[in-house]
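Re: that chain you flagged

S.,

Sorry for the slow reply, it's been a week of failed gels. I finally had a moment to sit down with the sequence you sent. For the record, here it is as I used it:
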Amino acid sequence: MHDQTPTARENVRRRVAAIAGQVRATLATGRPYWRRARATVLEAVKTLFIAFLLAQLIMVSVAQAFQVDQYSMEPTLLPHDRVLVGKFMYRLREPARGDVIVLRYPRNPERNYIKRVVGLPGETIRIARGKVFVNGKPITEPYFDGEVVGEFGPLRVPPDAVFVMGDNRNNSEDSRAFGPLKKQLIVGQAVLIYWPPQRARLLLMR
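Prediction finished late last night. Pasting the structure tokens below so you have them in one place:
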């Protein structure tokens, strides 16, 4: 193989130098782009992180999702229903009769139960002849169709408590068993069923 002539070698050097110059120009042009891209990615990550923290804060202080794993609220709530609980509701008002609430089980506060408020502070609760009586009068309960087995009371609800029962009256551990529920054990009001989709509906009575 013959050596390249000086002219040929010079042409090769020129071509290599030209290619190197193009590469340097491309890199120089690309640096601002990559810097901008990196800044954009970092800003997006920061925004997502802040959004995540805000979502966690909202869940802790304002609302939280709970899954029903009991039969005591049938037919209103079924096992595996998922409900959204407003944790701020009772900062704005007092619990009302008919509210569906999530509560900390008095005998083990690490467990959550879901029940309905039936009696309010100062009221006298009595169960007789298959009905719930408040201050001597039977209450209207559109969410319950049947008769309550057994008798209970009379019992006066303390000022700092409510009387709760499950809608599945004859298969529910509630205030008939553990007594009036102190308000400090109320987690919040269940406001809607959001899952499964075919059962989605509001739980508010007013």
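What I noticed first: DSSP finds three helices and twelve strands in the chain.

Talk soon,
D.
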